[in-house]
Amino acid sequence: MSQEDPRTASVAAAYQRFDPSAYLRNNYAPPRGDLSRPSGVGPWKLRCLAETFATDFLEANRQELGRWLREDPGAFDWSAYSWHACLIEGRGESWQEKERQLRARVKRVLPIDVHQPQPLGAASPAPLPADALVSAFCLEAVSPDLASFCRALGHITTLLRPGGHLLLIGGLEESWYQAGEVRLGVVPMSAGMVREALVLGGYEVRDLRTYAMPAHLQTGVDDVQGIFFAWAQKAAGVEV
């Protein structure tokens, strides 16, 4: 994260204590909710693109993702989620084939800093601009305030071609979450704030849906009240 702003520098310092294994256990093992039923997902049917680049700010997280891509012993088991994705898509594809395809199409795992004007650096190997971006539980979790969130959104928008698509997923009205021993702050977002940030950032919001977190799924590792799913398209002529 940018060291020019002391607030983002403070966030970056806090994230050096982030424990990816604890975060995955807290949030994904076992899955929160019932994965035995397909959900009404509308446009949220993602296909593996021909060339996919994964990114993360933390080296520890990039290593964690690399373990799954290499199928290393002890890598996190995403099979329940892969199975559910196959159920939603309804194409008769096995979860094993889904994971094989994804592993084959992820070309690199790259460092990123969303608080820099060039988030991937000046000499990124990723072919830019991209056709599509997916950002999940990132911008609101690494920004000290709403203004910083909007600037970070603008920075990643430079990676996307005009007419390209952004899938932005995040927590609603969340102010903190736990990742191992560290408790990390989050910008509390409403659906209206998300929509406004996207519109001001040069996007057409194609769809915005929210999911309220039931009380029985609130496990004490965060104070999230719901999840937002935003599908937005970068307007033609928008460069930032």
Describe this structure in words.
It contains 7 helices and 8 strands. It is of the alpha/beta class and 240 residues long. The protein has one domain: Rossmann fold (3-Layer(aba) Sandwich), CATH 3.40.50. Strands 3-4-8-7 form a 4-stranded mixed β-sheet, covered by helices on one side. It has a two-stranded parallel sheet with strand order 1-2. Helix 4 crosses helix 5. It starts with 5 loop residues before the first helix and ends in a 6-residue tail after the last strand. Keywords: Methyltransferase, S-adenosyl-L-methionine, Transferase. This is Phenylethanolamine N-methyltransferase isoform X2. One of its GO terms (biological process) is methylation. Belongs to the class I-like SAM-binding methyltransferase superfamily. NNMT/PNMT/TEMT family.
Protein traits:
240 residues; 31% helix; Phenylethanolamine N-methyltransferase isoform X2; 7 helices; alpha/beta; four-stranded mixed sheet; two-stranded parallel sheet
User: Percent helix among the residues?
Assistant: 25-40%
Overall pLDDT metric: 89
Radius of gyration: 17 Å
Task: Tally the structural domains.
Answer: 1
Given as residue ranges, the uncertain stretches (5+ residues, pLDDT < 50) are 35-48
Largest sheet: 4 strands, mixed
In CATH, the topology is named Rossmann fold
| Proper CATH architecture | 3-Layer(aba) Sandwich
Strand content: 15-25%
Coarse structural class: alpha/beta
The end-to-end distance, rounded to whole angstroms, is 19 Å
Number of helices: 7
| SSE run | HHEHHHEEHEEEHEE
The CATH class assignment is: Alpha Beta
Strand order of the largest sheet: 3-4-8-7
* Silhouette: globular
